[in-house]
């Protein structure tokens, strides 16, 4: 084998083999470094995307809580108004019933003027 390498063709083949191996080595090192750079860049990009998603999630939860609290406050105000209206109506009904019991014409078959006025108050 050493005799073959001492010939012109052997030296040429050995030189070509060394050149091919050097080219492969350079390619592997460059490819590995490029892959590592890309992996680092995409790792940072993914971390940024996760942070953005967490921020967006927190903002959306805060927005929903604000909207829910506003809706609850509006609902409480409507309920309070409805209760006040119901209390006023109940008071009016009690007043009209008291007036109806005190009406001297309560037992008559026809409605008197005061009875008509009480009915009109309900409308």
From TrEMBL:
Biased composition (Basic and acidic residues): 95-106
Residue stretches of biased makeup (Polar residues): 114-123
Segments traversing the membrane: 12-30
Record keywords, A-Z: Membrane, Transmembrane, Transmembrane helix
Chain segments carrying region Disordered: 95-123
Protein name per its UniProtKB record: Bacteriophage Rz lysis protein
Organism in which the protein naturally occurs: Rhizobium miluonense
